[in-house]
Each structure stands twice: as C-alpha cells, then as structure tokens.
Amino acid sequence: MISKKRLLWVNALVIIPLLLTACGPAATPPPPTVDVNALYTQAAVTMVAQLTANAPTFTPTVAATNTPVPSLTPLGGALPTLPPLATLPPLFTPTNAASSGPDKAMYITQSPADYESVTTGKVFNIIWRLRNTGTTTWTTNYVYRFYAAVNKIPTAANGYNLPVNVPPNGEVDLKVVATAPGTPGTYDTQWVITNPDGVNFSL
Predict the structure, then answer these.
(1) Side-chain half-sphere of 9: how many Cα atoms within 13 Å?
(2) How far apart are CA 43 and CA 96, in angstroms?
(3) Distance of CA 40 to the CA centre of its chain
(4) CB 162: neighbour CB atoms within 10 A?
(5) What tens digit of pLDDT does each residue of 140-198 get?
(6) What are the domain boundaries of the chain?
(7) Residue 91 to residue 99: CA distance in whole angstroms
C-alpha cells in the first residue's frame, strides 16, 4: 500500500488555447482534489500551443460615399471603472523547502518554463531537476511514474527508472517525453518518485 503521507509530487500543466477567432478556448477543468495530509513538490509547466496554419487575410473594400460622417456626442457623466482582469497563476507553486529523512527531495528547476509556447502536435521533453536532501542514495531501482491527471498530457511512457544513482546532496534530471495535444484545452500530468520498497517520498 502506498503511503500518501510520504509523497513527492511533480506536476506539469500545459495550457493550449485556441488562437482562432472562430472558436473559443476549451473550458478549464477544475484542479484535482489534493489530500491536505500529503506533502508534495510541485513543478508547474504552462505552455501555449500556437496554431501554425496561415489563414488568408481579408481586406474589406469600402466604396466611396459623399454622406457626411455624423459627429460623436460625448456621454454624460463619468465613465464606470471596470475591474482589472485577473491574472491566473499556475495551478501549483513549487516549494524549495527541504527537510531531513531517509528519502527526501528538493525541487530545483523545471523545463520548459511557465507560459512557454509549444506548437500543437510537437514532441517535447518535460524535465524536473531534483536534489537528494535525504540520507540514502537513490539508485536506478527508484522509479518516477505517472500518478494522476485531470486532463492528461500525452506521454511516451507512464514510468521510468532513475537514470543514475543519486547520493545525498546530489542532483538528477527527470525527463518525460510528451506531445502537445492538437486539441486546444488545459492539460496536466502529476508524477511521483517511488523507492524500491514501494513508498512515495516527500520533501
């Protein structure tokens, strides 16, 4: 049985809005329910897929006319003040705090960066760099694997062994090969690290 209280959770979020005026963006699904007792590391990746089709431009032709243009009449009173548009942050904010323990990790960096553009259908790598802040060496028998998603980013595999042994204070890049979906929408993927005893470990 996997203990949810010992959890390393790396999360990637890909937003692919439709950039054509003929169709609106897909509705953003609600974020996944998170166990408040779980400790996790989260790395958010937000990307915008660009539609590469070159739509023909239409230049309207306006016939000349002698009709005079009516003058504009100012509106009476003060114009209403509109509230500013909300800036949506990534679903999760990575934390760099680390604690001691046999199997512990600290999030260092992530690639691609938040809000980096990715063309629809493009194959790309999601890379999380983590530091071993525990007291044990992570061996190649440790695995990082797909854990959950609301609308999953397509990936080449659902799990990988660690590429190298990682001693305490060492760092490792965890790579996931993914494909930007061709359908506009919001996509995510959540991964955990599991030790040879089947335990997911946390910060």
Answers:
(1) 26
(2) 10
(3) 15
(4) 17
(5) 999 999 999 888 889 999 999 999 999 999 999 999 999 998 988 778 888 899 999 99
(6) 1-51+90-203
(7) 24
